From TrEMBL:
Domain Restriction endonuclease type II EcoRII C-terminal positions: 218-381
Residue ranges annotated for the Restriction endonuclease type II EcoRII N-terminal domain, each copy included: 16-115
Gene Ontology biological process: DNA restriction-modification system
Organism: Phocaeicola plebeius
Highest taxon of source: Bacteria
Pfam families, sorted: EcoRII-C, EcoRII-N
Cross-referenced Gene3D superfamilies: 3.40.91.80, DNA-binding pseudobarrel domain
Keywords per UniProt: Endonuclease, Hydrolase, Nuclease
InterPro entries, A to Z: DNA-bd_pseudobarrel_sf, EcoRII_C_sf, Rest_endonuc_II_EcoRII_N, Restrct_endonuc-II-like, Restrct_endonuc_II_EcoRII_C
One MF annotation (Gene Ontology) recorded for this entry: type II site-specific deoxyribonuclease activity
Name of the protein described by the UniProt record: Restriction endonuclease
């Protein structure tokens, strides 16, 4: 979803009243009447006036309309009730108003009321923007030319919930871990219109959103798969314990692997060169090597251009496991979702040349003395980009 369309949707959502209709040939002056402005049907009169017009009388009011979040017109809302007329219009757009052209026929006009005398106006000109706007507010073309019922908005939260329900309905068992992570990203990205641009702009935020979505997805699968089992009495306490361990082990296994899958997606979006599970000394397999295993095993490749990253959901007791996974690289990086570690452990990590990488909101959970030395995902990516911009290129 474009930023422009998103702005239009937000203005409609927050409006007291909002209205949309397609611009017609009459509007743009094919019959010479475009000076009368945009026609507003009686069913949308509340958009213009607090009370309906009275037949036999004219009434009007002056308002400001900000168009396309760009320029403002001093416009006039008028009800024509005298003589044979009985209609509402928006007039006075000033010279050079850009939406009374032949090419504007078929565009979608949107008017949203912010206050009594201040409005927003948008003209959607592409099929994609119009389709996305209709989809968001659950509209169809025949439901235009009337006030928009914003209660029908398909909010990202609703789309997320529906997406999870629809996916779970397709399966009788848990998807493979990589699939589960992919499904969570796809569902969240679709609901919130996330692109690689958004991922690169705020990798820390996107990662946490994906993890949260996957947790909700996984819980829904648990309810579907396990409900038939736990709804029947267990034959013994041992059977109950066995069943509980199955649940817990699956949760722990999924969480660790999913974190790696999500990080890989972000690194790919950021166009970093990396390789997963490269075999190093003593058959060790680091989670991520930048740029790749070929560079690592080439003694002529500068060691200071190599980057190691481990990934562990928690690391309080397990951070030492990665220290000997890549002997050529002195400083190791470890991404974790851990929120806070003791000062003693942080000092020990520093002594062992290990640097933590955590989601940006988590950095404040660590002692202030060490916060400057802790990388966010965004700053880690920028560091790798800087190294790779001046390093020999290795393709895998």
């Amino acid at each position: 979803m474009s930023e422009f369309l998103n702005n239009a949707i937000v203005k409609v959502q927050n409006a007291k009243y909002a209205f949309c209709r397609f611009i017609t040939a009459n509007d743009v002056g094919k019959n010479g009447s475009h000076q009368a402005g945009f026609y507003i049907p009686k069913c949308a009169a509340a958009l213009l006036f607090d009370t309906p017009g009275v037949k036999g009388e004219n009434k009007d009011k002056m308002v400001k309309v900000k168009w396309q979040d760009d320029f403002t017109t001093d416009s006039r809302f008028i009800y024509y009730g005298q003589g044979t007329r009985n209609e509402y219009r928006i007039t006075r757009f000033g010279k050079g108003f850009p939406f009374f052209e032949e090419d504007n026929v078929g565009d979608l006009l949107i008017i949203a009321q912010q206050s009594e005398d201040y409005y927003y106006g948008f003209v959607l000109q592409t099929d994609q923007d119009i389709d996305d706007f209709f989809a968001y507010f659950n509209l169809s073309p025949e439901k235009t030319n009337q006030l928009i019922d914003i209660t029908q908005a398909s909010t990202p939260e609703k789309q997320l919930e529906i997406g999870i329900q629809e996916l779970v309905a397709l399966y009788d068992d848990f998807p493979e871990t990589r699939q589960m992570a992919q499904f969570a990203r796809d569902i969240y990205n679709k609901a919130h219109h996330i692109t690689d641009i958004h991922i690169c702009k705020s990798p820390d935020e996107q990662l946490l959103k994906w993890i949260d979505t996957e947790y909700s997805l996984f819980r829904s699968f648990e309810e579907k798969v396990y409900a038939p089992i736990y709804n029947v009495p267990f034959s013994s306490c041992q059977e109950l314990v066995k069943f509980s361990n199955i649940i817990l082990n699956r949760r722990k296994s999924r969480a660790g692997k999913s974190l790696e899958h999500h990080l890989a997606t972000i690194f790919t979006a950021a166009q970093l060169e990396y390789e997963e599970q490269v075999v190093t000394e003593d058959n060790k397999k680091p989670d991520f090597l930048f740029p790749n295993g070929e560079a690592y095993h080439d003694i002529l490749f500068p060691a200071n251009k190599l980057v190691f990253l481990g990934a562990k959901t928690t690391c309080k007791d397990r951070w030492r496991q990665i220290l000997n996974e890549a002997d050529r690289i002195e400083t190791k990086y470890l991404f974790t979702l851990q929120q806070g570690i003791s000062k003693n452990q942080l000092r020990e990590m520093k002594h062992e040349h290990l640097k933590l990488v955590v989601p940006a909101p988590y950095r404040t959970s660590f002692d202030k003395e060490f916060q400057p030395e802790i990388e966010t995902l965004a700053s880690f990516i920028e560091m790798v980009k800087l190294k790779q911009s001046s390093a020999p290129i290795y393709s895998v």
